Amino acid sequence: MKPNPVSENDHFVGALEAPLTLIEYGDYECPFCTKAFPVIEKVRESLGDKLCFVYRHVPKSGAKNFAKQAAEAAEFAASQGRFWAMHAALFTHPEWRELDQLVAAAESIGLDPEACKKALVERTFAERVREITVASVQCGIIGTPTLFINGVRYENRIEEQLLRSALEAALPSG
User: Fold this and answer.
1) Alpha helix (H) residue ranges in the chain
2) Residue 71 in contact with residue 30, Cβ under 8 Å?
3) Cis previous bond, 113, omega within 30
4) Is 169 helix (H, G, I), strand (E, B) or coil?
5) Model-level pTM?
6) Contact 9/39 with Cβ under 8 angstroms?
7) Where are the domains of the chain?
8) Which of 19, 100, 142, 169 has the largest count of CB atoms under 10 Å?
9) Which string of DSSP letters, residue by residue, matches 102-150?
10) Mean pLDDT, 10 residues at a time, over the chain (174 residues)?
11) Superfamily of domain 11-169
């Protein structure tokens, strides 16, 4: 299992040429991804410009399909240059499970709530989410969160010290 190369089409924070790349395949409805969010944020902050962090959607299908709708809300925010703000809002408020709450989240980060609602109802970003998901599944991703450090799957618990140590160990010497 190997992730697709990181590109400008990905959601990333940090420089693409950073010596470390951490890719997370996640789902906004996954409780394990929710628990991993603050850990990854702390590690990201501590590594600064040494790290490029990439997030890729792998929403599970469900009866209410919240995970896909949340990913579409994140894509709507991305279209307005606010992906990371929506990403944080969705993981900070895992209790948000309804359309109106996603619209309120968009408004809370400074986006037009009516435009968000229209995009979600019309499923404007469904194809983008589907493309990311299909590419992820083709790489062998079946569970979330799945992390890769410089292209190598991270197999340990997602705890701050363990993840930071794994990332620091992957730093190129020199």
Assistant:
1) 31-47, 66-79, 83-92, 99-108, 113-121, 126-138, 160-169
2) no
3) no
4) helix
5) 0.94
6) no
7) 11-169
8) 19
9) HHHHHHHTT--HHHHHHHHHTTTTHHHHHHHHHHHHHTT--SSSEEEET
10) 91 96 96 97 96 95 77 97 98 91 96 98 96 91 94 96 97 77
11) Glutaredoxin (3.40.30.10)
